[in-house]
UniProtKB/TrEMBL annotation:
Belongs to the TRAFAC class YlqF/YawG GTPase family. RsgA subfamily. Residues 114-259 form the EngC GTPase domain. CDD domains: YjeQ_EngC. Binds 1 zinc ion per subunit. One of several proteins that assist in the late maturation steps of the functional core of the 30S ribosomal subunit. Helps release RbfA from mature subunits. May play a role in the assembly of ribosomal proteins into the subunit. Circularly permuted GTPase that catalyzes slow GTP hydrolysis, GTPase activity is stimulated by the 30S ribosomal subunit. NCBIfam families: ribosome small subunit-dependent GTPase A (TIGR00157). Zn(2+) binds at residues 284, 289, 291, 297. The gene is rsgA. Monomer. Associates with 30S ribosomal subunit, binds 16S rRNA. Keywords: Cytoplasm, GTP-binding, Hydrolase, Metal-binding, Nucleotide-binding, Ribosome biogenesis, RNA-binding, rRNA-binding, Zinc. This is Small ribosomal subunit biogenesis GTPase RsgA. GTP binds at residues 153-156, 203-211. Its cofactor is Zn(2+).
Amino acid sequence: MPNLFTDPSSSGLSRYGWTASLDNSFTEHREAGLVPARIVRVDRGRCDAVTESGPMRARLMTPHSPDPLLAPCTGDWAALRPGAEPALVTLLPRHSAIVRSSASRSSHGQVLAANVDIVGIAVSLAVPLDAAKLERLLALAWESGATPLVILTKADLAADAEAVRAEVGTLAPGVDVQVTSVATGQNLDVLTALLSGTTVLLGPSGAGKSSLCNALLGEDVLATGETRAQDGKGRHTTVRRELLPLPGGGVLIDTPGLRGISLHDAADGLERAFAEIERLARDCRFGDCAHQSEPGCAVQAAIGAGELTERRLNSYRKLQRENAWEASRTDARLRGERTNRQKAITSHLRATYKFREQQS
């Protein structure tokens, strides 16, 4: 019997991003009787996944870890053990992951989606632009290892879409910005042509992500809702992450609207999101310039010349402080875990020595 994965186009999984490279890396798992799958969603100790033979509901067999970063999530490639009760045995290595700080009090990160190639940031043109939120999402996207793409939605409701596009262009250096409208179909063909591999849509409730997904999918797969006129906010019509194949190829992941967007270990992402400030800083007279009142500060010179806004610099500083604080929490947790492990080892050794003394 021929191997369905020798030619990825012959596999049902190819619609979900399976490639010859992934197939080659799966050889050992296949020899152990496991089958490849892509996780669609995870809930209550089980996951919905797609395999070459169709959808499958599997229980999680992976060892429990207190770190959410190691838990299965939407977009993961996995090795499943088929049978009467399918089980997820292990995850394949991720090539990218969108991680934010956990909403809990722990210092762990939370993976929103894995193995993503494009992060589409949906921004509604029906409400005033929230520059700070966009900058956060861009840092999150750059840090993931995927390519950011800003999608301006609801152009039919915008007073001046091109003016907003120009403003977004200054906030997103090196990022493609597309103006779209589901109502009129504006630029949906252009957007479709830009999407390849796995695309995840991020943005607040009311940004039009589900409507955009339905337009790209060519059918009403996801529920949509009305937004409040006064602030453009909407209810969470998407309550869980969905992974859906696009008609023209590629995969789309829709996510619930994000209320909190806290960064987690995103130093590289911040540098990419604020690339123009990083570039200016290299021309400062002092290597440790704080960009305040130091002589020869290229960043302050750019602000004085109107090439950079004070708001943009303050936003960068704020996100750097937040990221540093999250990093310090992580360091403290790791130190605590090491201390607890050492205490456990010491306690075990003491118990062993005491037992030996009693036996002698």
